[in-house]
Amino acid sequence: MVQKQIKGLNLDELTLLCEENNFSAYRAKQLYHWMYRHGVDDVKQMENIPDDMSDYLSDRYQFKTLEVENIQSSKAEDTKKILFRTHDAKFIESVSMIDKNLHTVCISSQVGCNVDCKFCATGLMGFSRNLSCGEIVDQIIEITKLREEPVTNVVYMGMGEPFLNYNQVIKSAQILHDPHGMNLGRNRITISTSGILPKIKQYISEGQPYKLAISLNATTDKTRTEIIPINKKWTIDMIMKELEKYPSDKKNMIMIEYVLLKGVNDTIQDAQRLSSYANKLRCKVNVIPFNDIGNEFSRPDEQTINRFIDVLHKNQRHYQTLVRWSKGVDIDAACGQLSTAHHD
Ligand code: SAH
Ligand code: SF4
Prior knowledge:
The structure is a single chain. A hairpin with a 5-residue loop joins strand 3 (about 65-75) and strand 4. The protein has eleven helices and 14 strands. The strands form three sheets. Strands 3-4-5-6-9-10-11-12-13-14 form a ten-stranded mixed beta sheet. A two-stranded parallel ribbon has the order 1-2. The chain is an alpha/beta fold. Helix 1 packs across helix 2 (about 25-35), helix 5 packs across helix 6 (about 165-175) and helix 10 runs parallel beside helix 11. S-adenosyl-L-homocysteine (SAH) binds near residues 157, 193 and 291.
């Protein structure tokens, strides 16, 4: 019998599944709780599910969508990169970072990515397929089993462009946020996009409660189009106009990500333009010194990075400035270094 995926179904879908198969509707809540609250993927271990129901479901449904293929541990900090294999033998990576009492998991939303940013290893591997909601939440469930510390934060900053897999990404975030699911606060879930304008509009108009991060990465359309080709269609001004509609508050500020590339976007003028964009929003500016992926780009020297940050600090009115010295550089787990091209 061909098995279907049950992981990723929300409560309404599980209720329908129970009703269609003549199980009481309240069983859906129990299944939901076991799957997402307790991370149990063997239906036989779900104590309050009767035997006839667990036999029926285990014959027809897969409760686990991913297998751990490999784990790499950083020597410098408590960061691990996990390589997962999907049922159709695709490979994706996630990163688990523990720092004091924070356990942040960086998850993938697609196998590869077709946005083609020139500085990103995932972009260079091309696109294979979207991940299902089940595969997205399973990255966190599997990492919870591997680590002692509970997951406190989730960032959609691994492989893929989350807004090109909008429905599955939003559905997974709902399960992460739901008090009956993984119960993570809305401010502990961050979705990062390279600027897919129609989906940014949809996200804001739907009032999605999760943190939004935008990879701006350049301050002129000319440079941005060179390094992020979709900027030709959706320009900086078009994105800014949309972001100005975002209802930022102290607890929920937009994050502007800015990968600092030597000789491309690292001048004082760039820093000034970036601060004037940021001052129009209530936001955090996250400067990410480029992480090497073995192509033509490189990281500016420390003096240039510090000069850039100084200008941001000096002009800071409505934003905060952060520098993200990425974790896991020694295991290629840092921002933009995720790629499973060699596993295909
Ligand atoms: N596709 C989404 C999320 C994944 S990329 C997006 O582009 O926003 C997560 C972050 O890593 C983005 O801000 C991206 O600009 C940054 N990034 C990509 N390649 C990088 C690299 N080589 N060094 C540093 N940051 C990089
Ligand atoms: Fe895709 Fe983001 Fe990498 Fe660009 S930076 S290629 S959108 S994963």
